[in-house]
Amino acid sequence: MRRICAALIVCCALTVDPVSAGALRVVAAYPYIGSLVEKIGGTNVQVSSLARGDHNPHVIVPLPSFIAKVRGADLLVINGAQLEIGWLPPLLRQANNPAVQPGERGFLDLSRSVTLIEVPAAVSRELGDVHPEGNPHHYLDPENILLLAGAIRDRLSEIDPDAAAYYQENHQKFIELWRARLLEWSEKMAPLRNARVIEYHKSFDYFLRRYGLVLAGTVEPLPGIPPTSKHIERLEALLKGQPARYVLQDVYNPDDASRHLAEKLGMALRFLPHDVGAVREAGDIVSLFDEIVGRMTR
Amino acid sequence: MSDILWTAFLLSLVLLGIHSFFGIEIIRRGIIFTDLAIGQMAAMGAAVSILLLDGEYLDVVSLAFALGGGAIVAVAARRTDSHEAFIGLLYAFGFSGVFILLSKSYHGMEMFQKLTASDILFTPMSDLLKAALVYAVLGGVLLLFYRRARGLAREALFFVTFAITVTIAVRIAGVLVVFALLVAPAMTALRIRRGIPIVNAWIIGTAVNLLSILLSYNLDLPTGYTLVFSHAVLALAVALIVPARNSPARAEPRPAPDHP
């Protein structure tokens, strides 16, 4: 028994993480943020992401490692607009790192740098998973990535002014690459302008808006609430005369309702990655959008 | 990091202390699933409060549901022959009820997950102290009155204190974690021929808690589920290997709860 106790104590002592000196430790709430920070921070930052890209971003099961990561962070970058409301607050409290608390320099809420859409006039629980600040999936508008990259550059430079020129240079390079991509994506998406689509969750609204697609309905009756038979019936009736081009489905929600609708009404079902790592091909922020555009135009 | 593990470990001890008593009682009474049923009723109360009252009076509503569940189980004990089936159905009723209610609610699925097995690594110290205080009072009451109480008073005392205990525990740790802490150490302790069962349950439970929390931390696994898993594995293994302490007739194998 005594030997087991000793072994356990040793285990406990081994849980302290080694800290690598020099690099700025940045913790990203989601992988897309991590990828973006890597582009701007380059070799000066050591980035780790908390949530997995193939999980439901609203419902993240916090793991013990999250505490260690946040505790050791110099900068915590979150998506904001309450996407993390279900899991980040207890983590911030438990990690007890004063440098990355809201309002501090080490806390960056990306939603503050963009204009949110679908801001509800009144918030009620009866309207489902409605975020009072607006639709939180703002980064899926590729134009918004430019704003987010700027916010990340500014904050990195503020925390680490010695490397400001380096961040500026990386940012410049990234912006040039991104602008070229934006042209390419607009060109590819142009034939889809005014096409009607339905989506499972209101995840891709910013993307659809950017390229002029029309959202004809959602498989969920209300955001965050699983489809009911009555709602599916209503949706079928609505789409019967003029089916939508695509049913857009994220990778983490059950796809049976979407599949049923797509088959019944002869619409194409497309699985779109919503974050870096949601599908194998979406390895970083650039290939995430390459993949979304690719899957929509294939 | 040890301070974080420390809070989780303390919490598991606070829960273990009183749950071992109830665990041994419910195994002796042969009403194993009572906890799952009452815990699920407490969770249903929480869901009702979240959906209809915006989370107001959560503790009160939750406790009312748990007490209701306890009362139903106590009444059914005198009225039905297939008691386990009754309790099992009460559990299914609570589980599906919570799911239906929370499917209509803001962040409902998240809440559903937390009420099943929440992450005890993230429990604030204040919740821990509150639970410790209430459990100390309940423990005192049980120590003073339980042995002397007879008949209906004894039943009422048992189910009321049990409902309060489970209500608090479900809020902090979730239904499954509570069930594991309640049944697993008690079941193993009742098979040990030496010592006092409750003390054995405390020793076994503490060791498994410590092991699970370290395991969860080092392998980066969800803490609540790791706790449930370790307790279940150990208790199942012991039950298969070590012969029962009591007469074989009482130790007939029961079907494991079919948890979705």
Q: Keywords for this structure?
A:
heterodimer, A: 298 residues, alpha/beta, Rossmann fold, 2 domains, 4-stranded parallel sheet, 10 helices, 8 strands, B: 260 residues, mainly alpha, 77% helix, disordered C terminus
The number of helical elements of chain B comes to: 10
Uncertain segments of chain A = 10-20
Distance between termini of chain A?
63 Å
Shape of chain B: globular
Can you tell me the number of structural domains of chain A? 2
**Name of the top-level CATH class of the largest domain in chain A:** Alpha Beta
What is the CATH topology assignment of the largest domain in chain A?
A: Rossmann fold
Strand content of chain B: under 5%
CATH architecture title of the largest domain in chain A:
3-Layer(aba) Sandwich
Strand content of chain A: 5-15%
The biggest beta sheet of chain A reads: 4 strands, parallel
- Biggest pleated sheet of chain B: none
Please identify the oligomeric state: heterodimer
- Biggest protein-protein contact in the assembly: A-B, 32 and 30 residues
Structural class of chain A: alpha/beta
Structural class by SSE content of chain B: mainly alpha
